[in-house]
Amino acid sequence: MATHTTFRENMLRVIAVLGLIAILLLGAWGIIQLAFYLPTFFSNWGSAKETLSVSVPAQTTSDKAAALSWKHTGKSGEYSYSASYTCAPGLQFAAPVPTGSYQIVACDTPFNYVSASSSMQIIPVLAKGQKNATTTLSVAATRLADGTIAVRGKAQTTVAASTTQATSATTATKPAATKPATTQKPASTYVPSGRTANLYGYADLIVQITSAPESAPAGARVSLQFVVTNIGTNVAPAGWVFNATLPYNPIYVYPSGGQQMLYPGDKIVYTLGYDAVSTNGYNYYGSQSTATINIDTNNYVAESSEANNTASAVYQVY
Question: Quick one: three-class SS letters along the chain?
């Protein structure tokens, strides 16, 4: 009887030891797995998904300002933002420029002349006789570190014709359309700095208007001179572009082709000639006309600052 009891106790001890060993091995395996996946788990848990939500009133009225706003969450680093709208028959939008006035922007064309970071006022404009139109407004966030579009957002709005007569300069009845005379490719002069080594950080393109008319008679040939300089510490690769927005009705945008590489300190002096046209009405106060230069409009260059990529000249046409 005692022998049988001892054998059973020994078996229980063996089973207990084997169970303990199994538990220890299982625990060790679990610790190894936890150590392997723990960094990834906390990394995924701590990083929020990057999103861009866009807001615009679902119903807007022609010739009246509406707020286009966006909220960018989960972002990392510095970004620039550009807006655009899909083409719809008889519909255009006017966007603000640094001078305080507005200019018409073509559909499916990115714009953000004031470098807005979260919102801007835009003005929908319906063609005469058009009752309504629906479009989708989009905002793209470009990561400055590498120049890529990180995320996009969009919202839809329906524009209805205004039932009240325009009373201000920005909502005045638009004059008959005028077409620009043929605008040739601007003359340009490249001025190298000689610095091609010790490159680091980011490029930084800046545009400055150095010569513009103060006033001009309608129909006269005028010239606008502007300079694009790389004031950054790294090279701006070839392929960046600029748009020259000229005061016609509707607004005329001259798109440049790809421009050459600019090392730090390099600059290009451009001279653009075109005909002065009186544009009293929607886009301008009184008889003022505005010409605007926007550089790197496709966000091709990774820059340390996007705030200096626009320059405007205001002058009188009589």
Answer: CHHHHHHHHHHHHHHHHHHHHHHHHHHHHHHHHHHHHHHHHHHHHHCCCCEEEEECCCEEECCCCEEEEEEEECCCCCEEEEEEECCCCCEEEEEECCCCCEEEECCCCCECCCCCCCEEEEEEEECCCCCEEEEEEEEEEEECCCCEEEEEEEEEEEEECCCCCCCCHHHCCCCCCECCCCCCCCEEEEECCCCCCCCCCCECEEEEEEECCCEECCCCEEEEEEEEEECCCCCECCCCCEEEEECCECCEEEECCCCCCECCCCEEEEEEEEECCCCCECCECCCEEEEEEEECCCCCCCECCCCCCEEEEEEEEC
Report whether 157 contacts 115 (CB < 8 A).
Answer: no
Six-digit token pair at 51? 């999103």
Pairing of strands 132-143, 187-191: unpaired
What is the pLDDT at residue 82? 87
The maximal CA–CA distance of the chain, rounded, in angstroms, is 126
In this structure, the strands spanning 215-216 and 310-317 are parallel
pTM of the complete model beyond 0.90:
no
Give pLDDT tens digits for 271-305.
988 888 765 443 333 357 888 999 998 888 999 98
**Domains, the chain:** 51-170 (2.60.40.10), 187-317 (2.60.40.10)
pLDDT tens digits, one per residue of 141-200: 988 777 778 899 999 999 999 876 443 334 333 444 455 554 567 889 999 999 888 899
